[in-house]
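QA checklist item 7 of 12: single-chain prediction sanity check.
[x] sequence parsed
[x] length recorded as 571
[x] structure emitted
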Amino acid sequence: MDILLVASAFNSLCQRVHAELTDHGHRVEVVLASHGDDAVRDAVRDTAPELIVAPMLKTALPEDVWREHTCLIVHPGPPGDRGPSSLDWAVTEGAQRWGVTVLRAEAGMDAGDIWASVPFTVPPVGKSDLYRGEVSDAALTAVLLAVERYAEGSFKPRPQSDPAISVTWRDFFRQERRRVDWRYDDTATVLRKLRGADSQPGVLDELLGREVFLHGGHPEDELRGRPGDLLATRDGAVCRATRDGAVWIPELRPRRGSGDPAPFRRPAADVLGDRLRDVPELPAPLEPPPGHRTWSDIRYRRHGDVGFLAFSFPGGAMSTSQCRRLLAAYRHALARPTPVLVLGGVRDFFSNGIHLNVIEAADDPAKESWTNLNALNDLVEAVLRTTDRLVVAALGGNAAAGGVMLALAADEVWCRSGVVLNPHYRRMGLYGSEYWTYSLPRRAGDGTAERLTREALPVSAAEAVRLGLADRLLRASPGAFPDEVGRLAAALAGASDVRERIAAKAAARDRDERRRPLAAHRQEELARMHGIFFDPGAPYHALRSAFVRKVPSGSPRPLAPAPAPLPGEAR
């Protein structure tokens, strides 16, 4: 069918719905409702869709659109749940079971007939992690079922007047409900509040005399202090005492109007700056003892013949310091004698490349772009030059740009079935780096590599396997993914031909180096990127600023043909 997706942003769920509907043979277009009702009406007129689906919508569809067309709304709540803050309530109130419902748009918010619903168990994770994991899986299943039912033509959607459906209206979840009372709230309560707002909107609070929003929350079982006090920092995060323990908060966002020129999320220590001079900096435990609950964004463990280097950075972005720390941890892992090393292997994002928020907040964004990019290049090069073991990139969540190239540097790429890859840079006005001119053609072939970077479209995990970007599709839930990776990695390390594979890998790397050295790929890519970073008029700077500030930019049709060739490219 011809399907039009209407969304407030082309976020992870919208990308997945687009990619997987396309995989199922549908012709799919996207329009952003953030550009206004007329943009939606224009897209409906231009595409003449048979069905309209709204995977993520913060505003109502134009009445003339939903009256004249079948419009299916994806609501992140079980049947009968209504309101704009469904997941906030579920996480903050500690719901054990939740669901996703696909319903027809009508005048009443979330009140339309139900076309499909899928339940799921709620794990103890942040709202954004839940959204990209269990919610995304349930939503995709529900959307595919609803589309199939609509195409078949005989299905009768279930009205919410059905007495078996308990209708519950949940108001907008305001900051008054989110506030933490550091004197009286215990650690479990604080964590629920922080996790219920981890990506948006954050929890409004005051730290060291500054009004900020708190983003993210992780338990600490050793540090103690007066409730509300800052106890320590670690790798950009801050640890704050609760009534009965402490929590780590990785990111802060200055309140708009506070005078901060960068009112967007970034590492907590960067936001607080010199105010932290009397707060001790603690080293990160790369290999914490079993059972120790604390926060660190990089961890290593060895299990038999497999090393596991896990990392999890907020939003998947990797700053200069995060890239350098991950490279140091990678070298630590290489010092352990394991024939197999797994990178990632945890739920949520793998990597989205350089950290645009940190770059935008820097005194010299061009210089920080350059420094960050080189740090990520160093990490990718280290993976490419590893010839004494097999390296597996295990993607439990999405990857984009340089994060995809980090994965492709490994010998095998394993993707959870819900993963979406964006193996391109062009929509941020960039040529690209991280040895993509080597890794992408090596995996997918020259023609496919050129098409992927030119079209700049999201790719589902299943399509990634078909294209050669991934080697294995793991049909596991987000929570089960790490154990499944561990089982497969142990089997790989115990295979009878593992030493032969390692030797063949080393020989292939030697042949490739003689054909064209990695240094040549890096030099050519960085020359293009240097020209973009240090050109004040390059579109990259405006696109980056709009992205981090969440300001609509460009076309209301985000999958329109990618921008014109970058400087120095053939037309």
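[x] summary fact logged: The longest strand covers residues 97-104.
[ ] second reviewer sign-off
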